[in-house]
Amino acid sequence: MDLFLLKEYLNPLPVMDHSDDKPYRKIIHVDMDAFYASVEQRDHPEYQGKAIAVGGSPEGRGGVVATASYEARAYGVRSAMTSKRAQQLCPQLIFVRPRFAAYKEVSMHIREIFSRFTDEIQPLSLDEAYLDVTEDKLGIGSAIEIAGQIKKMIRDELRLTASAGVSINKFVAKIASDMNKPDGLTFIGPSRIERFMEQLPVEKFHGVGKVTAEKMKARGLHTGADLKKLTELELVTLFGKSGHFFFKIVRGIDDRKVESRQETKSVGAEDTFAQDLYDLEEMNAELDKISKIVADRIEKNQLRGRTVTVKIKFSDFKTITRSKSFPVTISGRDVILTAARDLLAAADLTEKAVRLLGITVSNFDEDILPFERRGYQGRLFP
Prior knowledge:
Helix content is 37%, strand content 21%. With 382 residues, the protein is α+β, with helices and mostly antiparallel strands. The protein has four domains: 15-34 and 101-190, 2-Layer Sandwich (Alpha-Beta Plaits); 36-99, MutS, DNA mismatch repair protein, domain I, CATH 3.40.1170.60; 195-249, 5' to 3' exonuclease, C-terminal subdomain (DNA polymerase, domain 1, Orthogonal Bundle); 266-373, 2-Layer Sandwich (Dna Ligase, domain 1), CATH 3.30.1490. Strands 7-8-3-9-10 form a five-stranded mixed beta sheet. Strands 11-14-12-13 form a four-stranded antiparallel beta sheet, covered by helices on one side. Strands 5-4-6 form a three-stranded mixed beta sheet. α7 (170-177) links the parallel β9 and β10 (185-187). It starts with a helix and ends in an 18-residue tail after the last strand.
């Protein structure tokens, strides 16, 4: 533990902001380190210490990297990079087929660890989540101490490492978790937030993509301090509704809650293929598998929906969706599969490689939702 973190540890998040008499929240963002690749290295000793990429292929129809180990990242290999480019950067790269069932099992164990400290948990994906520990179950009181214990439990019980960011809001906690990877623990306290945001490069703002970042830089906006010089109206004029968010966050203001309980909006499943698909028959076979998962989840959660949506992601990362709505609620596998296949057939797939397919059912009938299901954790993707 470095000297600064030790100082902050001995002076954990204050209970009250006396300037406006509002309590600070204690937010942790936990992000697993190279999650898929780390699970593969743990389960296969022959991969330990070697450059591996989960997803993609060095031969055949290519594909893209889902996750790269830190050994591979040292060569510049990154997620979403084509297999061809990844192998050019790292000729000794080992490509590993994804095992999503294994990753989900590990993810469920991680979430159980979170639940030992709080019920206010908002998973963002299999490998990251927000936790609100303002009122923790064990009465520990220090968000930094809780983050440290969570990291230790993950290491001891799963032989994996996680990085954690601690602050008083979600935005800053998420940025903090990425600052000292891997196996990092970073605290950004109230007195440091605004100055920290001023120094942050605009491309580091979550929600600022490559296009927006370039647009900002073209106008001389390179850091949070540059954004801070603009009025809220000016930011909205330049960047639309996102301007409201930029205005607040550069001042360290983020009032979003950790949404541990959300109304179910949709139920779905999707699969990313180790090799891109070209043949419609192969795609329909994959839809058959996915529709079974979706139908089982709908039945398990006693839901009925009116809209079926098919998601198609191509090898160039372009994603399209096609939807069909019914006059009555549906739930059976046969009708979901038939609708999905019809939607896929209607899409323009000519000479296009497909790397992901997904099916979602939505537009649920509120009248048939059991009472206990209202407020259940949002999307039911794996």
